[in-house]
Amino acid sequence: MGNIIQHLRGSVVDHSTYTGKKGEISLVTDASEARIPTGEIRIHDDSTPGGLPIVLGTTTNPLTSNIVLGSGVGINFHNYGSEDSNSATIVGNNLLDDYETGTFTPNLDTSNGDLAGFDYYTRDGKYIKVGNLATVSIELATINAANVSGTGYIEITGLPFIVLDNTNGGRNCLALTHDSRWTNNPQFGQSQSTTTSIRLFKGNSMNNVTDAMTVSDMRAYNNGNFNLVTIMFTYLTS
Which range of residues forms the domain containing residue 28? Predict the structure, then answer.
């Protein structure tokens, strides 16, 4: 067996009167709630009794600046999932590698990309993303929408992240928080796999033939030819 190198060590009391040389490293061997449970490492500067603790932050001594992680890395949590023979749980990943908030600009369009004949009054989008789970809030209001034209189905486009490929599973369905003044108001939406779009439906099913909205459902014949839709929903990203 090779040589073992052991650094200077001692209790908090031992350190309180010890002033080490510059660059000297020591280990506090007893723990407390104010330090990490296994003690802490201290580096000495030839002047500070006890040395300077090297810690990531504690309840009583929190960090005062951000921790910056490189792209593609994150915090790896303990695996708390149960994968025994009596459980259907399968833990695929416990790495939290992304958190962000921001804004985006949603659009109204058709599935053929040719919606025309209206103006926007409000286009507001906000999002929070944790890992690959994105939560978005959208408010879209139009004016001068009496003569909307286009082919295909009405969709909200411009989501900040691509919807997870769910061809072989259920798509994300979402209730609308508010809608008004359409010829036929949308009742719910459905995210479209591997796109940044939500298709709007006027009925109680997801039948594209009978319930997916078209331009005739969007036309508004009220004061200002105005219509409105607001949405908040959460979806998995690719």
Answer: 8-54
Residue 23 and residue 103 share a domain: no
> Counting Cβ atoms within 10 Å, is residue 18 exposed (0-12), middle (13-18) or buried (19+)?
middle
φ, ψ (nearest 5 deg) of residue 15: -70, -30
Report which of 7, 141, 131 is spatially closest to residue 77, judged by C-alpha positions. 131
C-alpha closest to that of 175 among 106, 234, 216, 220:
234
What's the sign of the alpha-carbon dihedral 90, 94, 98, 100?
positive
pTM for the whole thing? Answer: 0.71
**Does 16 reside within a domain?**
yes
Tell me, yes or no, whether 50 and 111 share the same domain.
no
The whole-number pLDDT of residue 183 equals 87
Q: Quote the strand ranges of the chain, DSSP E.
A: 8-10, 25-28, 40-43, 52-54, 75-76, 95-96, 99-104, 107-110, 119-130, 133-143, 154-157, 173-180, 188-191, 197-201, 227-236
CA distance 17 to 89: 53
The residue with tokens 């909205």 is: 213
Per-block mean pLDDT, blocks of 10 residues, the chain (238 long): 71 86 86 57 89 74 77 77 64 83 97 95 96 93 92 96 75 71 87 92 73 90 82 88
The total number of structural domains in the chain stands at 2
Same domain, 48 and 118: no
**63 in a domain, yes or no?**
no
Per the domain annotation, does 146 fall within a domain? Answer: yes
Tokens representing 152? 């295909």
Q: What CATH number should be reported for the domain holding residue 27?
A: 2.10.10.30
Residue 60 lies in a domain: no
